[in-house]
Design goal:
heterodimer; A: about 100 residues; mainly alpha; Helix Hairpins; 3 helices; about 80% helix; B: about 300 residues; two-stranded antiparallel ribbon; 12 helices; 2 strands; about 60% helix; elongated
Chain lengths: ~100, ~300
Protein backbone atom coordinates (compact mmCIF):
# COMPACT_ATOMS: atom_id res chain seq x y z
CA UNK A 1 0.00 0.00 0.00
CA UNK A 2 1.37 3.34 -1.00
CA UNK A 3 0.75 5.99 1.59
CA UNK A 4 1.10 9.75 0.99
CA UNK A 5 4.40 9.66 2.88
CA UNK A 6 5.89 7.75 -0.04
CA UNK A 7 4.88 10.56 -2.34
CA UNK A 8 6.30 13.15 0.06
CA UNK A 9 9.59 11.25 0.21
CA UNK A 10 9.73 11.21 -3.58
CA UNK A 11 8.98 14.93 -3.61
CA UNK A 12 11.91 15.51 -1.22
CA UNK A 13 14.26 13.55 -3.47
CA UNK A 14 13.17 15.42 -6.60
CA UNK A 15 13.45 18.76 -4.80
CA UNK A 16 17.02 18.01 -3.73
CA UNK A 17 17.93 16.90 -7.25
CA UNK A 18 16.58 20.17 -8.62
CA UNK A 19 18.42 22.20 -5.97
CA UNK A 20 21.72 20.50 -6.74
CA UNK A 21 21.12 21.15 -10.43
CA UNK A 22 20.59 24.84 -9.76
CA UNK A 23 23.87 24.92 -7.84
CA UNK A 24 25.90 22.95 -10.36
CA UNK A 25 24.73 23.86 -13.85
CA UNK A 26 25.98 26.88 -15.76
CA UNK A 27 23.56 27.19 -18.66
CA UNK A 28 20.84 29.57 -17.50
CA UNK A 29 18.10 27.68 -19.34
CA UNK A 30 19.07 24.43 -17.63
CA UNK A 31 19.04 26.26 -14.30
CA UNK A 32 15.48 27.32 -15.10
CA UNK A 33 14.59 23.71 -15.85
CA UNK A 34 15.96 22.66 -12.48
CA UNK A 35 13.85 25.35 -10.80
CA UNK A 36 10.85 23.89 -12.61
CA UNK A 37 11.78 20.48 -11.25
CA UNK A 38 11.80 21.91 -7.72
CA UNK A 39 8.39 23.51 -8.26
CA UNK A 40 7.04 20.22 -9.55
CA UNK A 41 8.35 18.41 -6.50
CA UNK A 42 6.63 20.91 -4.22
CA UNK A 43 3.42 20.45 -6.20
CA UNK A 44 3.65 16.71 -5.66
CA UNK A 45 4.02 17.28 -1.93
CA UNK A 46 0.98 19.59 -1.94
CA UNK A 47 -1.15 17.03 -3.75
CA UNK A 48 0.06 14.26 -1.44
CA UNK A 49 -0.87 16.28 1.64
CA UNK A 50 -4.20 17.11 0.05
CA UNK A 51 -4.81 13.40 -0.35
CA UNK A 52 -3.64 12.84 3.23
CA UNK A 53 -6.10 15.28 4.72
CA UNK A 54 -8.85 14.52 2.30
CA UNK A 55 -9.62 18.08 1.30
CA UNK A 56 -8.96 19.95 -1.87
CA UNK A 57 -7.07 23.01 -0.62
CA UNK A 58 -3.68 21.48 -1.39
CA UNK A 59 -4.74 20.88 -4.96
CA UNK A 60 -5.87 24.50 -5.30
CA UNK A 61 -2.48 25.68 -4.01
CA UNK A 62 -0.71 23.36 -6.46
CA UNK A 63 -2.84 24.85 -9.22
CA UNK A 64 -1.78 28.36 -8.22
CA UNK A 65 1.84 27.24 -8.10
CA UNK A 66 1.51 26.01 -11.68
CA UNK A 67 0.08 29.36 -12.82
CA UNK A 68 2.81 31.35 -11.10
CA UNK A 69 5.48 29.01 -12.48
CA UNK A 70 4.16 29.52 -16.00
CA UNK A 71 4.32 33.31 -15.59
CA UNK A 72 7.80 33.04 -14.09
CA UNK A 73 9.04 30.94 -17.00
CA UNK A 74 7.67 33.42 -19.53
CA UNK A 75 9.40 36.41 -17.94
CA UNK A 76 12.59 34.49 -17.17
CA UNK A 77 12.99 33.21 -20.70
CA UNK A 78 12.35 36.69 -22.08
CA UNK A 79 15.14 38.01 -19.84
CA UNK A 80 17.37 35.18 -21.05
CA UNK A 81 16.76 35.99 -24.70
CA UNK A 82 17.58 39.64 -24.13
CA UNK A 83 20.76 38.70 -22.24
CA UNK A 84 21.69 36.31 -25.04
CA UNK A 85 21.11 39.03 -27.60
CA UNK A 86 23.49 41.36 -25.78
CA UNK A 87 26.21 38.85 -24.84
CA UNK A 88 25.84 35.93 -27.28
CA UNK A 89 25.96 33.50 -24.40
CA UNK A 90 23.49 31.81 -22.11
CA UNK A 91 26.07 30.89 -19.50
CA UNK A 92 25.63 32.43 -16.09
CA UNK A 93 29.39 32.84 -15.84
CA UNK A 94 29.34 35.45 -18.58
CA UNK A 95 26.77 37.71 -16.95
CA UNK A 96 29.20 39.11 -14.40
CA UNK A 97 28.97 42.87 -14.78
CA UNK A 98 27.58 43.28 -11.27
CA UNK A 99 30.27 41.09 -9.77
CA UNK A 100 32.49 43.68 -8.17
CA UNK B 1 -22.91 15.28 -13.41
CA UNK B 2 -21.99 11.70 -14.09
CA UNK B 3 -18.83 12.39 -16.05
CA UNK B 4 -16.77 14.24 -13.42
CA UNK B 5 -17.61 11.51 -10.98
CA UNK B 6 -16.55 8.76 -13.34
CA UNK B 7 -13.06 10.05 -14.04
CA UNK B 8 -11.62 9.96 -10.49
CA UNK B 9 -13.30 6.66 -9.89
CA UNK B 10 -11.54 5.18 -12.83
CA UNK B 11 -8.26 6.89 -12.02
CA UNK B 12 -7.92 6.24 -8.33
CA UNK B 13 -10.61 4.42 -6.47
CA UNK B 14 -11.32 1.68 -8.90
CA UNK B 15 -7.65 0.89 -9.26
CA UNK B 16 -6.52 -2.10 -7.30
CA UNK B 17 -4.04 -1.31 -4.59
CA UNK B 18 -1.39 -3.59 -6.02
CA UNK B 19 -1.65 -1.74 -9.31
CA UNK B 20 -1.35 1.56 -7.51
CA UNK B 21 1.73 0.40 -5.62
CA UNK B 22 3.35 -0.97 -8.75
CA UNK B 23 2.61 2.23 -10.66
CA UNK B 24 4.07 4.33 -7.87
CA UNK B 25 7.32 2.42 -7.68
CA UNK B 26 7.82 2.35 -11.45
CA UNK B 27 7.09 6.06 -11.74
CA UNK B 28 9.25 6.90 -8.73
CA UNK B 29 12.25 5.10 -10.19
CA UNK B 30 11.67 6.62 -13.63
CA UNK B 31 11.25 10.16 -12.35
CA UNK B 32 14.25 10.07 -10.02
CA UNK B 33 16.43 8.55 -12.76
CA UNK B 34 15.25 11.14 -15.26
CA UNK B 35 15.84 13.94 -12.76
CA UNK B 36 19.36 12.76 -12.05
CA UNK B 37 20.07 12.39 -15.76
CA UNK B 38 18.72 15.89 -16.30
CA UNK B 39 21.24 17.33 -13.87
CA UNK B 40 24.02 15.30 -15.45
CA UNK B 41 23.19 15.68 -19.15
CA UNK B 42 25.43 18.11 -20.94
CA UNK B 43 23.15 19.13 -23.78
CA UNK B 44 20.30 21.45 -22.91
CA UNK B 45 17.89 19.72 -25.31
CA UNK B 46 18.45 16.41 -23.55
CA UNK B 47 17.73 18.16 -20.27
CA UNK B 48 14.41 19.41 -21.65
CA UNK B 49 13.41 15.93 -22.82
CA UNK B 50 14.30 14.38 -19.47
CA UNK B 51 12.34 17.09 -17.69
CA UNK B 52 9.36 16.10 -19.86
CA UNK B 53 9.72 12.53 -18.58
CA UNK B 54 9.69 13.76 -14.97
CA UNK B 55 6.66 15.96 -15.58
CA UNK B 56 4.65 13.24 -17.30
CA UNK B 57 5.36 10.73 -14.53
CA UNK B 58 4.32 13.36 -11.98
CA UNK B 59 1.08 13.81 -13.94
CA UNK B 60 0.35 10.10 -13.59
CA UNK B 61 1.12 10.38 -9.89
CA UNK B 62 -1.43 13.16 -9.51
CA UNK B 63 -3.95 10.83 -11.07
CA UNK B 64 -2.94 8.13 -8.60
CA UNK B 65 -3.46 10.58 -5.75
CA UNK B 66 -6.97 11.34 -6.89
CA UNK B 67 -6.30 14.69 -8.57
CA UNK B 68 -7.34 14.15 -12.19
CA UNK B 69 -7.77 17.87 -12.89
CA UNK B 70 -4.21 18.62 -11.82
CA UNK B 71 -2.98 15.64 -13.83
CA UNK B 72 -4.47 17.09 -16.99
CA UNK B 73 -3.27 20.59 -16.15
CA UNK B 74 0.19 19.18 -15.59
CA UNK B 75 0.21 17.58 -19.03
CA UNK B 76 -1.33 20.53 -20.83
CA UNK B 77 0.31 23.48 -19.09
CA UNK B 78 3.66 22.08 -18.00
CA UNK B 79 4.54 19.50 -20.61
CA UNK B 80 2.62 21.20 -23.38
CA UNK B 81 3.21 24.89 -22.87
CA UNK B 82 6.10 25.52 -20.48
CA UNK B 83 8.38 22.85 -21.88
CA UNK B 84 7.65 23.86 -25.47
CA UNK B 85 8.55 27.42 -24.51
CA UNK B 86 11.82 26.08 -23.12
CA UNK B 87 12.48 24.28 -26.39
CA UNK B 88 11.68 27.35 -28.48
CA UNK B 89 14.09 29.48 -26.47
CA UNK B 90 16.70 26.71 -26.68
CA UNK B 91 16.40 26.77 -30.46
CA UNK B 92 16.97 30.54 -30.42
CA UNK B 93 19.75 30.52 -27.85
CA UNK B 94 22.01 27.96 -29.49
CA UNK B 95 21.00 24.33 -29.61
CA UNK B 96 24.48 22.95 -29.70
CA UNK B 97 25.78 24.95 -26.78
CA UNK B 98 27.24 22.69 -24.16
CA UNK B 99 28.05 23.36 -20.59
CA UNK B 100 31.73 23.79 -20.06
CA UNK B 101 33.15 21.39 -17.54
CA UNK B 102 35.52 23.98 -16.15
CA UNK B 103 34.76 24.96 -12.60
CA UNK B 104 34.89 28.72 -12.38
CA UNK B 105 34.45 28.65 -8.62
CA UNK B 106 36.87 26.27 -7.01
CA UNK B 107 35.19 23.36 -5.30
CA UNK B 108 31.73 24.32 -6.49
CA UNK B 109 30.63 20.78 -7.34
CA UNK B 110 31.87 19.38 -4.06
CA UNK B 111 30.12 22.15 -2.14
CA UNK B 112 26.94 21.55 -4.14
CA UNK B 113 27.08 17.83 -3.36
CA UNK B 114 27.58 18.55 0.34
CA UNK B 115 24.71 21.04 0.36
CA UNK B 116 22.51 18.57 -1.51
CA UNK B 117 23.19 15.75 0.92
CA UNK B 118 22.68 18.08 3.88
CA UNK B 119 19.39 19.27 2.46
CA UNK B 120 18.27 15.70 1.81
CA UNK B 121 19.10 14.67 5.38
CA UNK B 122 17.40 17.74 6.83
CA UNK B 123 14.22 17.33 4.82
CA UNK B 124 14.09 13.60 5.51
CA UNK B 125 14.40 14.27 9.23
CA UNK B 126 11.63 16.86 9.08
CA UNK B 127 9.34 14.56 7.13
CA UNK B 128 10.20 11.67 9.43
CA UNK B 129 9.36 13.75 12.49
CA UNK B 130 6.07 14.83 11.03
CA UNK B 131 4.54 11.39 11.68
CA UNK B 132 2.40 11.33 8.59
CA UNK B 133 -0.57 9.22 9.46
CA UNK B 134 -2.73 7.10 7.24
CA UNK B 135 -4.52 8.88 4.50
CA UNK B 136 -8.09 9.95 4.84
CA UNK B 137 -10.73 7.78 3.32
CA UNK B 138 -12.06 8.72 -0.06
CA UNK B 139 -14.92 11.07 0.61
CA UNK B 140 -17.49 12.38 -1.76
CA UNK B 141 -16.29 15.95 -1.34
CA UNK B 142 -12.70 15.02 -2.12
CA UNK B 143 -12.97 12.44 -4.79
CA UNK B 144 -16.54 12.29 -5.89
CA UNK B 145 -16.28 15.33 -8.11
CA UNK B 146 -12.79 16.67 -8.23
CA UNK B 147 -13.38 19.39 -10.81
CA UNK B 148 -16.55 20.64 -9.17
CA UNK B 149 -14.92 20.74 -5.76
CA UNK B 150 -11.91 22.63 -7.11
CA UNK B 151 -14.16 25.11 -8.89
CA UNK B 152 -16.13 25.71 -5.72
CA UNK B 153 -12.94 26.36 -3.75
CA UNK B 154 -11.39 28.60 -6.40
CA UNK B 155 -14.47 30.76 -6.81
CA UNK B 156 -15.36 31.04 -3.12
CA UNK B 157 -12.46 30.74 -0.70
CA UNK B 158 -9.66 31.49 -3.14
CA UNK B 159 -11.42 33.98 -5.35
CA UNK B 160 -9.13 36.88 -4.41
CA UNK B 161 -5.87 35.00 -5.18
CA UNK B 162 -7.53 33.85 -8.37
CA UNK B 163 -8.18 37.43 -9.44
CA UNK B 164 -4.64 38.43 -8.47
CA UNK B 165 -3.43 35.58 -10.65
CA UNK B 166 -5.09 37.14 -13.67
CA UNK B 167 -3.24 40.40 -12.99
CA UNK B 168 -0.02 38.40 -12.67
CA UNK B 169 -0.58 36.70 -16.01
CA UNK B 170 -1.27 39.99 -17.78
CA UNK B 171 1.85 41.51 -16.22
CA UNK B 172 3.92 38.50 -17.26
CA UNK B 173 2.71 38.67 -20.85
CA UNK B 174 3.41 42.40 -20.99
CA UNK B 175 6.81 41.94 -19.38
CA UNK B 176 7.75 39.22 -21.84
CA UNK B 177 6.80 41.47 -24.75
CA UNK B 178 8.77 44.40 -23.36
CA UNK B 179 11.84 42.33 -22.49
CA UNK B 180 11.98 40.37 -25.71
CA UNK B 181 11.34 43.40 -27.90
CA UNK B 182 14.39 44.75 -29.65
CA UNK B 183 14.56 48.44 -30.35
CA UNK B 184 16.04 49.35 -33.73
CA UNK B 185 19.07 51.48 -32.97
CA UNK B 186 20.21 52.41 -36.46
CA UNK B 187 18.19 53.40 -39.50
CA UNK B 188 16.61 50.68 -41.56
CA UNK B 189 18.98 49.61 -44.38
CA UNK B 190 17.67 50.51 -47.79
CA UNK B 191 17.41 48.07 -50.66
CA UNK B 192 20.43 49.69 -52.29
CA UNK B 193 22.57 49.13 -49.17
CA UNK B 194 21.39 45.57 -48.87
CA UNK B 195 22.29 44.82 -52.50
CA UNK B 196 25.70 46.42 -52.12
CA UNK B 197 26.38 44.48 -48.94
CA UNK B 198 25.46 41.26 -50.67
CA UNK B 199 27.79 41.89 -53.60
CA UNK B 200 30.60 42.88 -51.27
CA UNK B 201 30.20 39.71 -49.25
CA UNK B 202 31.49 37.68 -52.22
CA UNK B 203 28.38 35.53 -52.48
CA UNK B 204 25.52 37.21 -54.30
CA UNK B 205 23.56 33.98 -54.63
CA UNK B 206 21.84 32.21 -51.77
CA UNK B 207 23.55 29.25 -50.10
CA UNK B 208 23.00 25.88 -51.77
CA UNK B 209 20.25 23.80 -50.30
CA UNK B 210 21.14 20.52 -48.60
CA UNK B 211 20.84 17.36 -50.61
CA UNK B 212 20.95 18.99 -54.03
CA UNK B 213 21.98 16.33 -56.58
CA UNK B 214 22.85 13.98 -53.72
CA UNK B 215 21.18 10.64 -53.31
CA UNK B 216 19.04 11.82 -50.42
CA UNK B 217 17.58 15.23 -49.90
CA UNK B 218 17.70 15.09 -46.12
CA UNK B 219 18.95 18.20 -44.35
CA UNK B 220 22.13 16.52 -43.17
CA UNK B 221 23.17 15.50 -46.70
CA UNK B 222 25.57 17.99 -48.22
CA UNK B 223 24.78 19.14 -51.74
CA UNK B 224 26.93 17.92 -54.61
CA UNK B 225 28.71 20.52 -56.67
CA UNK B 226 29.10 20.22 -60.48
CA UNK B 227 32.44 18.48 -60.05
CA UNK B 228 30.95 15.90 -57.71
CA UNK B 229 32.48 17.23 -54.53
CA UNK B 230 30.40 18.08 -51.50
CA UNK B 231 29.50 21.58 -50.52
CA UNK B 232 30.02 22.11 -46.82
CA UNK B 233 28.08 25.33 -46.96
CA UNK B 234 24.85 23.54 -47.83
CA UNK B 235 24.48 21.94 -44.41
CA UNK B 236 23.38 24.08 -41.50
CA UNK B 237 26.23 24.62 -39.05
CA UNK B 238 24.00 23.39 -36.24
CA UNK B 239 23.61 20.03 -37.95
CA UNK B 240 27.16 19.71 -39.23
CA UNK B 241 28.39 20.56 -35.74
CA UNK B 242 27.05 17.26 -34.45
CA UNK B 243 29.83 14.78 -34.15
CA UNK B 244 27.67 11.73 -34.81
CA UNK B 245 27.01 12.88 -38.35
CA UNK B 246 30.65 12.98 -39.31
CA UNK B 247 31.20 9.31 -40.22
CA UNK B 248 27.95 9.16 -42.14
CA UNK B 249 28.84 11.96 -44.45
CA UNK B 250 31.05 10.06 -46.82
CA UNK B 251 29.06 6.93 -47.41
CA UNK B 252 25.62 7.58 -48.79
CA UNK B 253 26.49 10.81 -50.50
CA UNK B 254 29.37 9.57 -52.58
CA UNK B 255 28.30 9.34 -56.21
CA UNK B 256 28.91 6.17 -58.14
CA UNK B 257 30.96 6.44 -61.30
CA UNK B 258 28.95 8.18 -63.93
CA UNK B 259 25.77 8.22 -61.92
CA UNK B 260 25.56 11.74 -60.60
CA UNK B 261 28.92 12.68 -61.99
CA UNK B 262 29.16 15.77 -64.17
CA UNK B 263 29.20 15.27 -67.93
CA UNK B 264 32.74 16.36 -68.74
CA UNK B 265 35.52 13.84 -68.41
CA UNK B 266 37.64 15.97 -66.12
CA UNK B 267 34.89 16.25 -63.56
CA UNK B 268 34.11 12.58 -63.96
CA UNK B 269 37.53 11.68 -62.74
CA UNK B 270 37.04 13.85 -59.72
CA UNK B 271 33.70 12.30 -59.06
CA UNK B 272 35.26 8.87 -59.06
CA UNK B 273 37.87 10.03 -56.68
CA UNK B 274 35.14 11.12 -54.33
CA UNK B 275 33.15 7.99 -54.77
CA UNK B 276 35.97 5.79 -53.66
CA UNK B 277 35.50 6.63 -50.05
CA UNK B 278 37.06 9.93 -49.21
CA UNK B 279 34.87 11.05 -46.39
CA UNK B 280 35.83 14.66 -46.69
CA UNK B 281 34.92 14.87 -50.34
CA UNK B 282 37.87 17.07 -51.11
CA UNK B 283 41.57 16.90 -50.63
CA UNK B 284 42.09 13.77 -52.71
CA UNK B 285 43.80 15.74 -55.42
CA UNK B 286 45.54 19.03 -55.40
CA UNK B 287 43.10 21.18 -57.30
CA UNK B 288 39.97 19.94 -55.64
CA UNK B 289 39.83 22.27 -52.64
CA UNK B 290 39.97 25.16 -55.01
CA UNK B 291 37.12 23.75 -56.99
CA UNK B 292 35.12 23.21 -53.88
CA UNK B 293 35.81 26.75 -52.87
CA UNK B 294 34.90 28.16 -56.21
CA UNK B 295 31.88 25.98 -56.57
CA UNK B 296 30.74 26.84 -53.11
CA UNK B 297 30.97 30.47 -53.87
CA UNK B 298 28.76 30.22 -56.89
Amino acid sequence: MVSPSHFVALAVILFVIGAVGVLVRKNAIVIFMCVELMLNAVNLAFVAFSRLHGNLDGQVIAFFVMVVAAAEVVVGLAILTSIYRARRSASVDDANLLKY
Amino acid sequence: MSHPAVVPTVLAVGMAEETQTLAFWILAVVSVAAGLAMVLARRAVHCAMLLAVVMLSLAVMYALLGAPFLAFVQVIVYTGAVLMLFLFVLMIVGVNSRDSLVETIKGQRLAAAVVGIAMLVLLTLIIGHAAIGPQAAFSASYNGSNVTGLAQLIFTTYVFPFEVTSALLITAALGAMVLAHRERTGPRPTQRELARRRIESGRPSPLPGPGTYARHNAVDMPALLPDGSQSRLSVSPVISGREELEPREGGPVSPGPGEIAPPDSDGNGNGNGNGNGHPDGNGSSGDQPEQEHEGARW
